[in-house]
Design brief:
Strand order of the largest sheet of chain A: 6-7-8-4-9-10
Oligomer: heterodimer
Number of strands of chain A: 14
Radius of gyration of chain B: 26 Å
Shape of chain B: elongated
Helix content of chain B: 55-70%
Number of helices of chain A: 10
Order of helices and strands of chain B: HHHHHHHEEEEHEH
Order of helices and strands of chain A: EEEEHEHEHHHEHEEEHEHEEEHH
Radius of gyration of chain A: 21 Å
Number of strands of chain B: 5
């Protein structure tokens, strides 16, 4: 299995703010990887480092076999779509296609035209006059027209309505299905993309909290429900990700493959969103306040 | 990349060309007028020569003066023109793309930032050089009657609109705009810095650097001996010293002779304050030891100065472009 992205001890600092610290992630080839985290977690920073638009303060990166660099060979293999969907406002889609054709050695203009036609996006209108959804589709299509091996998308669906989201993700999934493309797309919500992603990187407070193939991660995690009691025994064999207590009952999210022997615990599988929220909540709130509103709702 | 540059700048190019055409029209119209005035003066002087008047008297004493306010006004426009290209094309080059976020689009296509900069800046600099060149050529023709009459082509304000230097100013202004835009990343502040920087550099070089490109020539004579350097020289400084070697104050409205107040001359020369013919042999003897001096750049150095000034601004432009390249390549997009 080929590794497309590997980082080790990646750090990015802006003056006094640390946007990313000790970031170790691995993404194998052909995955659609969700980069999940709350706002300000460092998602954009990580994507910009991987694309070569920004340089790390410390640490190492290997993207498609070498550190990101300003070099036509590297740039040809990596597609990047920034969060603000940068397009030339006064240029039409057709003119954007021409730009791509002039600036890239490999360029599939027909692909762009076909996709835009099927999405009913006009080729002759200025990008600035298109709707948000149309702009995002145009920008994604242009990113894919390069035929990159790795596509980095920063919050591509954040500005879209639910229907446009679905269309956008479908376009992307379509593209991936064909050629062993690897995609990393960031979002602050996992629900949006649960159906299309198969790999997860969870960032919170500028650190990686969780990363791996989603089915493996889900298999490693379990929810335990039992009478309110001391959790020390469980903590000895498993990692307690989150503990929620009501006066009579304790609910735990644990990680680890060892069996749970105590019959007082009722064990069940965990959903992706639940797991993600547990990790995000764990970091966002201080360690003492595990009695969260989330626990009371349950 | 060339295609993209053309597509991005074709509107500005059209506006720039229209402006240049308007300016050319202004120069041609006023220039033709200047030429006809000059011909009138030449003709009148030729007839006046029969009356024993020299050329200086003919043009100034005779009340004939080529151009008048028009020359000053048009010169000002031509002086200011090079900065416009830097303001409206140079400053937004990188800054507008940073503001719109499109650097993140352009720099993730299959070309490097270095290439992106080289092609874009290259075309803009070429356009600036052409713009400056056309303007300089026309202005040189336009200014020839006044230069012929007054021998003023070496003077600041006139030197700056002739021959080579306007091309260098335009290239410098463009480079300054590009650099400011790349460093500041916001169009309007970059334009402000370009404008301020251009004026500062031009004023500083004109006042403090240009006079020293080559050591000025100083000619010292007896106070009574008239001295006028030949041709279109550039007068840096002139004055008089008393026998003790002290610089004498200017006349400033007092009765004067030889450019200094009569009151500061020996008593024997008091008659100089009166009607002409007050010069006596005793005064002439008393003035021994008084010296007048003229510090100037000879007319023969005009082309050397044009070359050096052009070199200075081209080198400044090269430095700015190097800073731009290093910044764009090293800094995060």
């Amino acid at each position: 299995m080929t590794t497309v992205i590997q980082t080790r001890g990646l750090v990015k600092q802006f003056r006094r703010v640390t946007a990313l610290s000790d970031c170790d992630v691995t993404v194998p080839e052909g995955r659609i990887c969700a980069l999940i985290g709350p706002n300000g977690a460092g998602k954009t920073t990580l994507l910009r480092l991987l694309s070569g638009l920004a340089r790390p303060t410390a640490g190492e990166m290997s993207v498609l076999g070498s550190p990101p660099r300003q070099d036509p060979a590297f740039l040809a293999e990596v597609g990047y779509l920034a969060q603000e969907i940068p397009l030339y406002r006064r240029f039409t889609a057709e003119e954007h296609i021409s730009i791509g054709a002039h600036l890239n050695r490999r360029w599939d203009a027909a692909l762009v035209r076909d996709r835009l036609k099927s999405l009913k996006i006009p080729l002759d209108r200025a990008a600035g006059s298109l709707s948000g959804g149309q702009r995002a589709q145009l920008a994604l299509t242009l990113t894919l027209a390069k035929k990159p091996r790795l596509v980095l998308l920063d919050e591509p669906v954040a500005a879209l309505d639910p229907l446009a989201r679905r269309h956008f993700l479908a376009t992307m999934a379509d593209a991936v299905a064909g050629d062993g493309l690897t995609v990393v797309l960031s979002s602050h919500l996992v629900a949006d993309m649960e159906r299309v992603v198969d790999h997860l990187i969870l960032l919170a407070a500028s650190r990686v909290q969780l990363s791996g193939d989603i089915d493996v991660l889900l298999a490693e995690h379990r929810v335990l429900v039992g009478p309110r009691k001391d959790t020390a025994a469980i903590a000895g064999t498993h990692t307690i990700v989150q503990a929620m207590h009501t006066p009579r009952q304790t609910t735990l999210l644990i990680r680890g493959n060892a069996p749970v022997i105590d019959p007082a615990w009722e064990s069940s599988g965990v959903g992706l969103e639940e797991m993600v929220l547990a990790y995000m909540g764990r970091d966002a709130a201080p360690a003492t306040s595990h009695l969260t509103s989330v626990g009371e709702e349950q | 990349m060339t295609w993209l540059t053309w597509r991005q700048y074709r509107a500005q190019f059209a506006v720039g060309t229209a402006l240049l055409a308007a300016l050319c029209l202004l120069l041609v119209l006023t220039g033709l007028q200047l030429v006809s005035q000059y011909h009138t003066i030449i003709t009148e002087c030729a007839s006046a020569a029969g009356n024993g008047q020299n050329r200086v008297n003919c043009s100034t004493g005779g009340g004939l003066f080529v151009g008048g306010p028009t020359v000053g006004f048009v010169s000002l426009i031509v002086l200011a023109t090079p900065v416009l290209a830097g303001l409206f094309l140079g400053a937004p080059m990188a800054a507008a793309e940073f503001e719109a976020g499109t650097t993140q689009f352009a720099w993730m296509q299959g070309i490097t930032r270095a290439r992106w900069l080289a092609v874009k800046a290259g075309w803009l600099l070429l356009a600036a050089a052409l713009w400056g060149g056309v303007l300089a050529a026309l202005t040189t023709w336009w200014a020839s009657p006044t230069n012929a009459e007054h021998g003023s082509e070496f003077y600041p304000g006139r030197f700056d609109v002739l021959y080579l230097v306007p091309v260098a100013y335009a290239v410098f202004a463009m480079a300054l705009g590009i650099c400011a835009g790349a460093l500041i990343r916001r169009t309007v502040p970059a334009m402000a810095v370009t404008l301020g920087g251009f004026i500062a550099a031009r004023v500083a070089v004109t006042l403090w650097v240009r006079p020293h490109y080559l050591g000025a020539v100083t000619v010292t004579r007896n106070l009574t001996a008239l001295f006028q350097p030949s041709g279109s020289f550039w007068l840096i400084h002139q004055g008089a010293r008393n026998p003790a070697g002290q610089l004498m104050a200017g006349a400033q409205g007092q009765p004067a002779a030889f450019g200094v107040p009569v009151s500061s001359l020996p008593r024997a020369c008091a008659g100089l304050a009166g009607p002409p013919g007050g010069m006596t042999s005793s005064c002439r003897a008393a003035l021994t030891g008084f010296r007048s001096f003229v510090t100037y750049q000879p007319a023969s150095r005009f082309w050397a100065f044009q070359g050096i000034e052009t070199g200075v601004f081209v080198i400044l432009a090269a430095i700015l472009l190097t800073v731009t390249a290093v910044t764009l390549i090293r800094r995060d997009a």
